[in-house]
Amino acid sequence: MWVLWRPKKLVLFMVLLLTVYGHTGVSWSRSLGDGGKKDEKDVGLELTMDNFNTSLWAAPASWALVEFYNRWCPACQKFKPHYEKVARLFNGPDAAYPDVVLLAKVDCADEINQKLCQRFSVLRWPTLLWAKPTALAWGSRTSEQDPVLEQIPIKAAYNANSLLEWINKRLDRSYTFESANEQKQSAQTTGLASRQMVASIQDIEEATAQAYEIILTQKLLSSKHRTPFIRFLQLLVVHHPSKRCRAGSAEVLQNIKDAWPGEHVSEFDDHFTGIIQSEKLVGDVGALKRLHVCGEKLPSKHWTTCKAENNGYSCGLWYLFHALSVRVDDAESNGAMRTIRGFVENFFLCDDCREHFMKMSASAAETVTTRRTLALWLWRAHNEVNKRLADEDIVNKVQPSRPKLQWPPKRMCTSCRKHGDTDDEFEWDEDEVYIFLRKIYGDSLEVAVQESTKITTKSRHSENDKVEETLTNNSVAVPVGAAAGIAMASCGFGVAACCWRLQQKKRKQMRRRI
Ligand SMILES: Cc1cc2nc3c(=O)[nH]c(=O)nc-3n(C[C@H](O)[C@H](O)[C@H](O)COP(=O)(O)OP(=O)(O)OC[C@H]3O[C@@H](n4cnc5c(N)ncnc54)[C@H](O)[C@@H]3O)c2cc1C
């Protein structure tokens, strides 16, 4: 009897110990080997019931992979270094391929996570689930055959190579551990490009101010220019990366009714069809000339990253267009494309450039329907101009100091190019290009705006509250009237955009309530 009873008791005792020490587990898990240890260098994101939904909801990556494991399970311990190896490619500050896949993990041995593991019907360890981060954030599954939350087969979770191979197949990519170093170098170059963008915010402001001046000093300014001018300002009010340019544009919009009264233009009128026939300029445009679209000190005729001798204005304009393209909402994208075309058609004072641009972008009305298609359309158009200029240089046997390249060059973004190694023969990976454009013209510029705001705040403190508007000041408060202008412009940009915005706001509120 005792002989029979003792092993059972022992097992029970062990289970009790494991349960009690399970929470603090560090010393216990260490005794079980490295696999169970939570290493500080781990980059696989450790999630718990408390932060699972919110972390995945906020994840910038396009995909998420979650490993449900149990720190006591030997197979999980064996697999851990392999999972970490793959995670280092995609997660953390040194990731070779950031924002592609988020690799996360949940320890089902933690009592706090038990409901979470049940929610995903985890029956064995490790279980690897693959889905969009948002699908995981709010999802659950009842069987291993769930079509949305895909379970990675056991043989793929064998080692780092098999897991990366599965990811490559799933994404139709060829990420490798070997090319990661090359990619890291490219990431450093991207870092350089990002820093360049931080400086280019000044060029964007300068180009905006020059554009405003050029428009209002055009000798042939007529009432047919009013609508494209207003639409351009509306786009700036909502999406210009610089706060002071948003505020300045709002102020101009507020004054337009008095300074440049015109026929009422319905939101659905197409300004390319020339609905406004009158060629007579009405009103006092001089009043608008006295306003400053990006602060009093601009334009200064000074360029930071654009080269004056290389036509700083058109370089700054490209920056502005790209920055706008990654900021609009999907519902606004077609309107934004028309606004940019309208600007070039009416206000870009280079006949050849205008003609080429209008011709090559003629079909954009049908194809630009989202922010992604807008950003890629503009990127393609810019590259087409780059190519034409590069070809002209070859024909004219000119060797420019900054040769026109297909952008981004490989050293800046390796993953933007698939198949083909030379600069002449390759295929773009447009998903990666879009990620890159958003990083360069979106995130980096946000950093620029924040940094220039910090500079202003510092200078305010150091000069005993003598407020000096520095060149890079972005912290100008939007006046109440202008704020109303912004709100109106935001809605005026298109009824669809307005409805969409309201819907988004409602959804956000709902989510907060949940
Ligand atoms: C709408 C438009 C049409 C033009 N058409 C002509 C023309 O027909 N003939 C002509 O001689 N000039 C044209 N120009 C001017 C020309 O494109 C350049 O702006 C000018 O030669 C200055 O070149 P840059 O070397 O400073 O760099 P730019 O070409 O002005 O580029 C500025 C920066 O944008 C980034 N960049 C480059 N390519 C891309 C891309 N594809 N996507 C995103 N970012 C990119 C790079 O960081 C680059 O430094 C046009 C300009 C505009 C705005």
TrEMBL record:
Bilayer-crossing regions: 476-502
Keyword Oxidoreductase set for record: yes
UniProt cross-references to PANTHER family, sorted A to Z: QUIESCIN Q6-RELATED SULFHYDRYL OXIDASE, SULFHYDRYL OXIDASE
EC number: 1.8.3.2
Residues in ERV/ALR sulfhydryl oxidase domain copies: 306-407
Keywords: Disulfide bond, FAD, Flavoprotein, Glycoprotein, Membrane, Oxidoreductase, Signal, Transmembrane, Transmembrane helix
Reactions mediated catalytically: 2 R'C(R)SH + O2 = R'C(R)S-S(R)CR' + H2O2
Name of the top EC class for this enzyme: oxidoreductase
Protein name listed in UniProt: Sulfhydryl oxidase
One Pfam family this sequence matches: Thioredoxin
GO MF annotation: an example: flavin-dependent sulfhydryl oxidase activity
Any coiled-coil regions, as ranges: none
Cleavable signal peptide: 1-22
Thioredoxin domain location: 38-172
Record keyword Transmembrane helix present: yes
Cofactor(s) needed by this chain: FAD
Species name: Marchantia polymorpha (Common liverwort)
One GO BP annotation of this record: protein folding
Example of a GO cellular component annotation carried by this entry: extracellular space
